[in-house]
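Target chain:
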Amino acid sequence: MQFDHAGVATDDADGLAALYETAFDAPVAHEEEFDGLRVVFLELGNGYFELLEPLPDADDAVASYLDRHGPGLHHVALATEDIEGALADARAAGVDLIDESPRPGAWDHEVAFCHPKSTGGVLVEFVEH
């Protein structure tokens, strides 16, 4: 497993993308609308920033997160070549899972999330490209 991306909740993906591109030399690598979100991936070395902006009238987890916490770090994603194995290993280690099995994610990846209550308060995502 290796670091893949940091997900950042924002209500202004364009503004934040422009800042990150200028300040961190992180150009836009991919963007799409997915599951009630505008998702913008910015390339940074061997990983990405994933900007998550809820679409108007979206009623999803990121919109709720922004309402409760405001903009900021939403999750950390770890890339794996075997997402089913990663879930099994996490489960065996006592990690509570939000997703018991992988589901479709942005950029045609398979994803699954671990519950932050069992990972030190960090929402951890497994992603298989």
